Fold this protein.
Amino acid sequence: MTTDSSLAPWLHAAHATLAALRARGAHAALLHGPAGIGKWELAMAFARDALCETPDAHGRACGTCPSCRLGAAGNHPDLRVVVPDALAFRRPVPAEAQDDEVTGRDGGEGAEGERGAGAKASREIKIEAVRSLAAFTGISTHRGGLRVVVLGPAEALNAAAANALLKGLEEPPPQSLFLLVSDHLDWCLPTIVSRCALVRVAVPPRQAALNWLLAQGIPDAAQRLTEAGGAPLAAAREEGDGLDADAAETLRGLLRLGPALQAAQIAAQVPRTIPVAASIALFQRWTWDFLSVRLGGHLRYHSEEAARFAALAQAWRPDAAVSWLDRLRDARAVADHPLNARAVVEGLLLAYRNSMAEGRADA
Ligand SMILES: [Zn+2]
């Protein structure tokens, strides 16, 4: 359940700005600022708040009304999330699709299924994605309230997609709210920018960021915050140790497949040169989050993937996950001098897949 109603403290001011804009009838806002400080999380939280049928005194979502429950299940009919395929994990996962995703049957989210072995997902937002919004905004809302589009990064809109979006921003359908997010405002098309109310989100004061990281239980918080240039969400995700963002995302993409993960995909996608210790650290964070959720806690490192972890719980038994953690710890003990780094990482991924095949929750 994505009932993460807590908003990091440095986002409250921007949230209030969005609420004030909304109260004045603004239909499009563009959240901008450095990467990794929570702009996307803020946009999604504000979307949930705006769709809530019984918000609290501060305008925050109640978490229990029909709209909030639809949002938590990943299938609110009045919310559209537009991201490049490379960021497909940010799309809500409809509850009824979760089983399909985990078991690899047809009917999962197209993007990852079509990626296949080795294929690179697009980093652009293409015109098809924006065109499909016309159908969404052209009909009356399902729940009689707003309809909300969350789109980002806005700089990922290719020219055709940006032009298509422009029409929606120029002649906004009634009861619509567009929330755009950008890490690079100067890379966005000026005509898009000029039609949005700009809301700047600043890098939080270091102490506030540090307090937040410590409250999340992030180890080495001060060091990681420094390495991430003061961006707390980036620090929480920081891979460090030479694992670049593409390689980290590739590994997470493989983990997301769960029991549907194939040996051929592992062989095709694990990069030729891969730092073992950092890969193991990523695997460990994945598993800690899984166990945290299973024990009723919250996601520390993958807060955008609540639905994914809920689905994973259908296939992975906690004791199997703990066994994999043991194996990761053993591998990490010798990770400084592996004979074949790639073979080590591939072997661990195979063990991950096998730990699900053997330990299915419903077996
Ligand atoms: Zn609600």
Strands lie at 28-32, 79-82, 147-151, 176-182, 197-200. The CA atoms of residues 85 and 122 lie 5 Å apart. The pocket of zinc ion is lined by residues 52-54, 61-62, 65, 67-68 (CB under 6 Å).
